[in-house]
Automatic annotation (TrEMBL):
Protein name: Probable allantoicase
Family: Belongs to the allantoicase family.
EC identifiers of the protein: 3.5.3.4
Transmembrane segments: none
Pathway(s) this gene product operates in, as recorded in its UniProt entry: Nitrogen metabolism; (S)-allantoin degradation; (S)-ureidoglycolate from allantoate (aminidohydrolase route): step 1/1
Example GO molecular function: allantoicase activity
Keyword terms, alphabetized: Hydrolase, Purine metabolism
Organism: Streptosporangium vulgare
Superkingdom, natural source: Bacteria
Enzyme class: hydrolase
HAMAP family: Allantoicase (MF_00813)
Length: 320
């Protein structure tokens, strides 16, 4: 399996399974807008026709007979700083748009489509050439936080997927006085190092919700040495961990035998959070952690290899 590199290794802030939503489009005559943010590669079955023509796994508009262009509006599942955008025209060969651009805006709360029309939109991908049946990668600079993006295609056609990769920047003030999952991707945590991600991304293990199947967790290749696999999580903020949840759901024959968790506040001195502990396959394990110092990073070691569906490190943000 080829590992993502550059900005594509960062989470897709718009992904449907991470809470993204295509909340509006000016046209979706041939194929629905919701396909833009589906997980996985687009599929295609030739000579598969519905009432509107060939069925496409993507968003496709009618042929325009008047001036203008088509657009789709996406609410990011996780607000953040955008580092790069992928516009994928997979399988659209005679009906792809020749150009596209992407705009972004930050609007707090729960704005309606009408309210978003007056937002301060910033162009993060200028009008750019597209090819048919191809992935187009566009790096994005800047440190602004965004909650919504708007995909524009000129003048019409079909786009299979839109990926908006970046770093999550949540509003953690909502949790003042409350506990939270310090390892949650949606709270701003991120896997910054990993020994192996042969089968699936380690960031899956800190994604929202429960893993529906094995591929939605983190799984390593089989080790043929005396070592063990591990990952390092940059926590949502400096915090005190009080409960570790280690979930091996769906990992029936490839769960790790044991797990241990350590933490650090300075990146140099590591202290134990959870000692090396036996795990069972296909099980959600919960372990109380008492009297731990504040940590900014956590390292999860699995022994010797295998996979985890989810990792949760519940606790409280450190004061100050």
């Amino acid at each position: 399996m080829t590992e993502p590199t550059g900005f594509t290794a960062l989470p897709d802030l718009a992904l449907r399974t991470l809470g993204g939503s295509v909340i509006a489009a000016n046209d979706e005559s041939f194929a629905e807008r919701e396909s833009l943010i589906r997980p996985g590669r687009p599929g295609f079955m030739p000579h598969t026709f519905g009432a509107k023509g060939q069925v496409y796994d993507g968003w496709e508009t009618r042929r325009r007979r008047e001036p203008g262009h088509d657009w789709a509006l996406v609410r990011l599942g996780m607000p953040g700083v955008v580092r790069g955008v992928v516009i994928d025209t997979a399988w659209f060969k005679g009906n792809y748009p020749p150009y596209a651009s992407v705009e972004a805006a930050e609007v707090e709360g729960y704005p309606t489509v009408a309210e978003l029309e007056t937002a301060d939109w910033v162009e993060i991908v200028p009008r750019s050439d597209l090819k048919g049946d191809a992935e187009h990668l566009f790096a994005v600079s800047g440190e602004r936080r965004y909650t919504h993006v708007r995909l524009n295609m000129f003048p019409d056609g079909g786009i299979a997927r839109l990926r908006v990769h970046g770093e999550v920047r949540p509003d953690l003030s909502l949790y003042e006085g409350l506990g939270l999952d310090l390892a949650a991707l949606e709270n701003g945590a991120l896997v910054t190092a990993c020994s192996n991600e042969f089968y699936s991304s380690p960031n899956n293990a800190i994604s929202p919700g429960l893993a529906r199947h094995q591929a939605e967790g983190w799984e390593t290749a089989r080790r043929r040495d005396d070592g063990n696999d591990w990952l390092v999580i940059r926590l949502a903020g400096a915090g005190v961990v009080s409960l570790a949840e280690i979930d091996t759901t769906n990992l029936v024959f490839n769960a790790p035998a044991e797990v241990s968790v350590t933490g650090t506040a300075d990146g140099t001195t590591w202290f134990p959070l959870l000692p090396r502990t036996r795990l069972l396959p296909d099980t959600r394990h919960r372990f109380r952690i008492r009297d731990a110092p504040a940590a900014t990073y956590a390292r999860v070691d699995i022994h010797p290899d295998g996979g985890l569906a989810r990792i949760r490190l519940h606790g409280f943000l450190a004061e100050g």
